[in-house]
Amino acid sequence: MATEYEQGYGLGSGSRYAGGAGEGRHRLPAALRAPVEGRTWRELAYVLLSLPIGILLFVYAVTMVALGAGLLVTFLGVPVLAAALAGCRGAGAVERARARGLLGLEVGEPEPLRTQGRQGFTAWIGAVLKSGASWRSLLYAVLRLPWAVFSFPVVVTFWSVGWSLLTYPLWFWVFPLYGGQGGIQLYGDEQHQIYVDNPFEITVTALVGLLFTIATPWIVRALTTVDRVMVHGLLGPSRLATRVVELESDRGVVVDTAAADLRRIERDLHDGAQARLVALAMDLGLAKEKVKEDPRAAARMVDEAHGEVKTALQELRDLARGIHPAVLTDRGLDAALSAVASRCTVPVQVEVDLAERPAPAIEGIAYFSVSELLQNVSKHARATRAAVEVWRAGNRLMLQVVDDGVGGADGSRGSGLAGLAERLDAVDGVLVVDSPPGGPTRITAELPWRTARMP
Questions:
Q1: Most C-beta atoms within 10 A of its C-beta, which of 29, 76, 79, 383?
Q2: How far is CA 110 from the centre of its chain?
Q3: Does 59 reside within a domain?
Q4: Are both 278 and 214 inside the same structural domain?
């Protein structure tokens, strides 16, 4: 945990400095840079490729699904439908790669096929047909074409008009030299012809082209926003699957934390109270043997055993407090956190503003979170004072620990704050660390609010 407070000048601050320097190197505003930025050209390439890809996907999806539906009267219909869905899943992988390369969009893999432990072609067909990701990929293949048909001409029109008008002063000479007219014809009938051929009109035309050229990247960006939504929503993992993965990970964290707590309790009992009780039993056995031969020595041994009993009882009380303090059960967070604050090496102000008590599980997590944060203050912060605030905000229980120490705490390194963040995440909680070098350190934790049930 010491590194969390003392290594605040790591990659985080360095990367922020690099980003700021990069921004400072741009001498042109974003509107003028956009037409020549690499991002704009990549997004343009994405839109232009979407039309031919959309045609191929649409034709494949409609043809295969129609063929499979028509063959459902025979045994071939179901395998053909499964092949159609499998092909759409494969195309979805290509589209995710294209979005990653050209749009910079990172989309995770959808949930894998679940064959329920069975093997063989039939199990694979059933898994493909039951997979929601397969049908979302089919929907993407169908919707890709109409959106591409809309976005492709819009982008090509704006892009070609903008650049052609902007560069008109460079190529307008083509008209009088080879076309027999003064320039671009704006209007013409039997009596009148209007051409863009004088310096003023040429300048105005270039300015209009500049406006089109500046606006085009933002139009492309708006259109590709829809593409991002489609790729993320239809080709990525579903919310349910993502939530299942999160719950599986959280369950693993809870199991590991419970196992670590059990090992800690076993170690404390074995090395502490159990060892003392074993020594106490041996001392009392020796005292029993000496009662008749040397009463004074026996009395002295009993007195020493009495001291060992007091020490063992204190260790058992400390161990019980570490498992779940009685004051928390009896009197709630306010009294329990005040007791923790009294054992901190710096003065701690505790303020608990709760109209009712949360559920015991949430209350226990809040108590141990504040306890660990105050231990960090005692061991590593080099602070002169600290404060603990607990309050309710809607359906969240908020905890905040502030100290005036040296700062530099980093939840991404070490095992202390990182482990605490994992334990909070296991119950849909959040840990936010704000600890600039030099302090102060402000650590905020959010927990879901669950009202305690009446017995």
A1: 383
A2: 17
A3: yes
A4: no
In 3D, which of 402, 422, 321 has the Cα closest to residue 367? 321
Among 237, 270, 288, the domain boundary falls at: 237
Residue that wins the pLDDT comparison between 440 and 62 = 62
- Long-range contacts at 392-395 (CB < 8 A, ≥ 24 apart): 392/353, 392/354, 392/355, 392/449, 394/449, 395/448, 395/449
- Segment 352-361 shows an average pLDDT of 83
- The residue ranking higher by pLDDT, 380 or 234, is 234
Helix, strand counts (H, E) of the chain: 17, 7
Cβ-based burial of 17 (10 A; exposed 0-12, middle 13-18, buried ≥19): exposed
Gyration radius from the chain CA atoms: 36
Contact 136, 110 (CB under 8 A): yes
pLDDT at 423: 76
Helix (H, G, I), strand (E, B) or coil at 228: helix
pTM beyond 0.70: no
Neighbouring C-beta atoms of residue 410, cutoff 10 Å: 21
Residue 407 pLDDT level (bands cut at 50, 70, 90): confident
Strands 396-403 and 386-393: antiparallel
Question: Residue 354, exposed/middle/buried by CB under 10 A (0-12, 13-18, 19+)?
Answer: middle
The pLDDT assigned to 128 comes to: 84
Confidence of residue 238 (pLDDT cuts 50, 70, 90): low
Structurally, the chain folds into a number of domains equal to 3
Judgement on whether residues 85 and 202 belong to the same structural domain of the protein? yes
